[in-house]
Amino acid sequence: MSAMRWSSDDGSAVVEFTFVAVLLTGLTLSVLQLGVALHVRNTVIDAAAEGARFAALADNGPGDGVARTKELITVAIGRDYAHDVTARSGTFLGHPSVDIRVVTRLPLLGLVGVENALEVTGHAAVETLDE
């Protein structure tokens, strides 16, 4: 038997367009999702660092830093991302510091994602009022 030969390539442009459109749409959505994930990550990192700096001021404490961090995250990306924020006093590179730790969701499909998959810590040197 001989191989079957197509006598016409009518409609092949439509099929090729569909294949390319599906691939480009998938690629575009993947890049947009990466942008969302990076935005959430960077926002949480900045909020933790700002919360640590706020807590390290001479007239503030770790609780103030937690409240500031939660406020910043809530305003920027939503309350669901600010539920696990903790603070502790310690040392960082040999200096007294305040550490603000945030554990939150990493978005994988829109803003839906894996709970507790993103963990960041902000550090700040404690301010003292030595005379």
Structure description:
Helices cover 45% and strands 28% of the residues. The protein is built from 2 helices and 3 strands; from the N terminus they run ααβββ. It has helices at residues 12-55, 62-76, and strands spanning 85-92, 95-109, 112-125. Helix 1 (12-55) packs antiparallel against helix 2 (62-76). The radius of gyration is 25 Å and the shape is rod-shaped.
Strand content: 25-35%
Shape: rod-shaped
One letter per element, helices H and strands E, the order comes to: HHEEE
Rg (C-alpha, Å): 25 Å
The number of helices is 2
| Poorly predicted regions | none
Order of strands, main sheet, comes to 1-2-3
Beta strand count: 3
Could you report the average pLDDT, rounded to the nearest whole number?
A: 89
Distance between the termini: 100 Å
Strand count, sense and barrel status of the largest sheet are:
3 strands, antiparallel
Q: Roughly how much helix do the residues carry, as a percent range?
A: 40-55%
Supply the helix-strand structural class. Answer: alpha+beta
Q: What are the key terms here?
A:
131 residues; alpha+beta; 2 helices; 28% strand
Brief characterization of the structure:
The chain is α+β, with helices and mostly antiparallel strands and 131 residues long. The chain has helices at residues 12-55, 62-76, and strands at residues 85-92, 95-109, 112-125.
Element layout with pairings:
Blueprint: H1 12-55, H2 62-76, E1 85-92, E2 95-109, E3 112-125
